[in-house]
Amino acid sequence: MIFDVSGATKKYKNLYRIVSAAISIPVSNAFIERIFSMASIQWTKERNLLEVKTVRALLLVSANFDMSCIEMHKMLSGNKKLLERIHLGEKYRKFEDE
User: Fold this and answer.
1) Backbone conformation region of residue 50, classed left if phi is above 0, alpha if psi is from -120 to 50, else beta
2) How far apart are CA 84 and CA 82, in angstroms?
3) d(Cα 73, Cα 5) in Å, to the nearest integer?
4) Most Cβ neighbours (<10 Å): which of 3, 28, 76, 93?
5) DSSP labels, 26-79
């Protein structure tokens, strides 16, 4: 950020907090509406037994990856280290407490 480059973060702490808060306010609610739309697509009458954490994971992938299934498959199959981590199951231990 601008404050970090000039060293003003420490000098103007309160101004930094105000500017950071103002910048973080979304201009519109389009992103949230998009997430709700994606959630309604995932959580249908046929799939109503999905757990909240499963729907959350599906939404995270849908919102953060702009790839087709074929592109995702190519990316994953080309990354042996990532495939090993996927098969370890560490991701599940991380979310058990949530």
Assistant:
1) beta
2) 5
3) 40
4) 3
5) -S-SHHHHHHHHHHHHHS-STTTT--HHHHHHHHHHHHH----HHHHHHHHHT-
How many Cα atoms sit within 13 Å of 42 on the Cβ side? 20
Q: What is the pLDDT of residues 49-80, one digit of tens each?
A: 888 888 888 888 888 888 888 998 898 888 98
Cα–Cα dist 82/75, whole Å: 10
- Predicted TM-score (pTM) of the model is 0.46
Spell out a b/e string for 1-40, using b for 16 or more CB atoms within 10 Å of the CB, else e: eebeeeeebeeeeeebeeeeeeeeeeeeeeeeeeeeeeee
- Chain position carrying tokens 């498959």: 73
Q: How many residues does the chain have?
A: 98
